[in-house]
Design brief:
Layout lengths: L3 E7 L5 E2 L15 E7 L29 E2 L4 H6 L4 E2 L3 E6 L5 H12 L5 E5 L4 H10 L7 E5 L3 H11 L3 E5 L16 H18 L3 E6 L9 H7 L2 E6 L6 E9 L7 E7 L2 E4 L3 H6 L9 E8 L2 E13 L7 E4 L3 H15 L6 E7 L11 H13 L7 E3 L2 E2 L5 E2 L4 H10 L4 E5 L13 E5 L2 H8 L1
The structure holds thymidine-5'-diphosphate and magnesium ion.
Thymidine-5'-diphosphate binds next to helix 2 and helix 3.
Length: about 450
């Protein structure tokens, strides 16, 4: 029997060491070194690699015209992928349990099994459960093959035998290679299974989706290791309590990573939300202080979202600051600018910021809406219901111009906003749509006066 030895592997970055550390020497995370048992024969070489003799070719001889994409017909997903699923690509789909990963995979199957043979490998659910879900999603089709298996080598064998047109692996944490002695879900298993399945799929030019669960820090187990291997990484985000979900690409070798897809979970699966601004603004309170609508660009698409601010007297000497959906340090900076440059004081007050709908605003153009929500709450003066503001706030309290001003103005106007406050320097390049009052502002005080 092979000698048993153990190695400590960082669950964040995959760093291996014969010795335990409290803090990973490679990525610096605490308490991430987990013991994994490996037998002597183990190492990563257990998965035999075939040496294939290949020749270099001149880059001009490589043709790109045959890059074939499967269009899923789920337009939000196609956009995030950069225009459909590229043949032979490996796509990692991450997200919290229950967010809808298995649901969207089955919906892709529903669309594509009309023409393609798809193998759905599930290590989590029984065939019966899958059948029930497929029936509910109306995804039953002779072309949808179901395999409940957790041994990656068996799965690979089935892929080689059956040669499906696409493979879904749900999830990679349940897969294992029996020669490796570490348990399923460990970094070694996840990495080796992904590598192993990838070689089979790439060899046959089959696109493959891999579901990866997210750990409590919000990343896929061994994320660094996996992100290097795969072609695209998609994350499903959103509040489980809320019905809508945001699909975001954090890596994409075949498209941009700026696009998001918006879905809503319904009785019959995930539905695309074609008009996210309208959804995010529905239920917006009228004529109350402390809210302002922001406009952020997600890729090529402007999206409107409501920012709420709450400023309340702080009972203790140490005021609280809290921010959801907006960067905490950016909020502190805006508060400091408001105090120093505009004369609004928050030193004896708690400050809370919340972006409605689970959206994250990380674009400087949303600064102005955040500042306006805070001032509105501080002064208890509502921002007009038909008004919206965007602009970046500089440290001198000036409002700086932003990109894509025209697109933002058009989107705001489309949703019925007719008083649009924009940076003064953007004014000359923007055409006002009919019935819209465009107001260019130079500083925070001007902006607030224009909005109330
Ligand atoms: P699921 O796809 O199983 O999540 P994951 O694979 O990411 O863990 O999502 C399941 C959740 O979605 C579950 O809470 C039930 C809900 N759901 C619906 O509301 N409608 C539906 O049609 C389906 C299939 C699921
Ligand atoms: Mg699932």
């Amino acid at each position: 029997m092979a000698k048993v030895k153990s190695v400590f592997v960082c669950s964040e970055c995959g760093y291996e060491s014969p010795k335990w550390y409290g803090k990973c020497p490679s990525c610096g995370n605490w308490n991430t070194m987990n013991e994994e048992v490996v037998s002597k024969a183990d190492n990563s070489s257990v998965v035999k690699r075939q040496a294939v003799y290949t020749k270099p070719v001149s880059i001009t001889e490589i043709s790109t015209t045959d890059e074939h994409r499967y269009i899923t017909g789920i337009s939000e997903l196609d956009r995030v992928l950069g225009g459909g699923i590229v043949k032979g690509s490996l796509i990692l789909l991450g997200g919290d349990p229950g967010i809808g990963k298995s649901t969207i995979l089955l919906q892709i199957c529903r669309q594509l099994t009309k023409e393609l043979k798809i193998l759905y490998v599930s290590g989590e659910e029984s065939k019966r459960q899958l059948k029930l879900r497929a029936a509910r999603l109306n995804a039953e089709n002779d072309n949808l093959l179901v395999l409940t298996e957790t041994d990656a080598q068996v799965v690979a064998e089935v892929i080689r035998e059956d040669k499906p047109d696409m493979v879904m692996i749900d999830s990679i944490q349940t897969m294992s290679i029996s020669e490796l002695s570490s348990s399923p879900g460990s970094v070694t298993q996840v990495r080796e299974c992904t590598n192993y399945l990838m070689r089979v799929a790439k060899g046959l030019d089959i696109p493959m989706f891999i579901v990866g669960h997210v750990n409590k820090e919000g990343s896929i187990a061994g994320p660094k290791v996996l992100e290097h291997i795969v072609d695209a990484v998609l994350y499903f985000e959103g509040d489980k309590q809320m019905s809508y979900r945001i699909l975001r690409a954090v890596k994409n070798r075949f498209g941009s990573t700026n696009e998001i897809g918006v879905f809503q979970m319904s009785e019959s699966g995930l539905e695309e939300v074609q008009n996210p601004s309208m959804m995010l603004l529905s239920g917006r309170p009228k004529n109350v202080s402390g809210t302002c609508v922001a406009c952020t660009m997600e890729g090529t698409r402007p999206i409107l979202a409501e920012v709420q601010g709450l400023v309340s007297a702080s009972p203790f000497g140490n005021p609280r600051r809290m921010s959801t959906g907006f960067d905490y340090s950016r909020m502190s900076l805006i508060v400091a600018v408001l105090e120093k440059r505009a004369g609004y004081y928050f030193s004896n007050t708690d400050v809370y910021i919340n972006v409605i709908g689970g959206l994250r605003l990380d674009e400087p153009a949303t600064d102005l809406a955040v500042a306006m929500a805070l001032i509105s709450s501080l002064k208890d003066t509502p921002v007009a219901d038909n008004a919206i503001a965007f602009g970046e706030i500089g440290l001198a309290g000036e409002i700086r111009s932003v990109s894509h001003a025209q697109e933002r103005v058009n989107e705001a106007s489309r949703l019925g906003f007719n008083r649009i406050v924009i940076p003064y320097n953007n004014l000359k390049n923007v055409k006002a749509p009919a019935d819209v009052q465009l107001i260019g502002v130079r500083n925070i005080r001007e902006a607030f006066d224009a909005l109330t």
